Amino acid sequence: MTEPKLYGTVLIKAKEILDFILSSTRPPTLLDISQGVDQSKPTVLKILTTLSALNFVRRDDDTKRYYLGTQLLAYADKALTSFDIRSVALPDLTQLRDQTGETINLGVLANNRIALIDKLESSSSIKLKSIVGGTMNMYSSAMGKALLAQYTPEQLDDYLAANKLQPLTTNTIVTQAALRQNLKQIQQVGISIDDEENEPEVFCIGVPLMKDNQIYGAFSVSTPKYRIDTTRQKELIHLILNTQRKIEQQL
What we know:
Elements: H1 9-23, H2 30-37, H3 41-53, E1 57-60, E2 65-68, H4 71-82, H5 85-100, E3 103-109, E4 113-120, E5 135-137, H6 142-148, H7 153-162, H8 176-189, E6 192-195, E7 202-211, E8 214-224, H9 230-250
Antiparallel strand pairs: 1-2, 3-4, 3-8, 4-5, 6-7, 7-8
């Protein structure tokens, strides 16, 4: 099969420049970009000037370094909303609901909160306060903490600066030091626990849904606290991690 003929060489070069800025560990200079994409400085400068006028990149006049521009946020937001994580995850989450007999929650990030986009209940599951379309705190929920554990230190600092840790139950984590320690544990074990932190008498186990460092959402299993013991918790974690792997393979 023959490869399609591509038009617009400058577009290809522009994408290479954007990709380089995206992958750089720190905002690059003009020289960094020129060397990184193997294009001459005059060519790179012309493309950057155009990209800057379109708000696809921005240049810090003091440091002479380049950043991705705000215009890309609109494209990213549209791309994420057009990607339906629910349709990808639903078959495996339905199977998990049937295997566990517990409530399965699917959520996505929404303005520093978790938006519940689906909830699968079974005949033996509990009735939670949360409703599809509603939101919950990240610091007190299993799904939220699973995603907070994926944040960079800078992102976590920004989150904590913008969100007060208020108690929802007597078990809610309300100090930054305790939350940071909890998130470190989540990073080590790969699962998060909400032990009556978001809602009394409710125990939740959550995991993130990610691919190539991109967060797509999270899901959790919720069960009454009285139904949880060490053996049951291990069983649920095993099933949850298997489901997580199956979903992420499809992303």
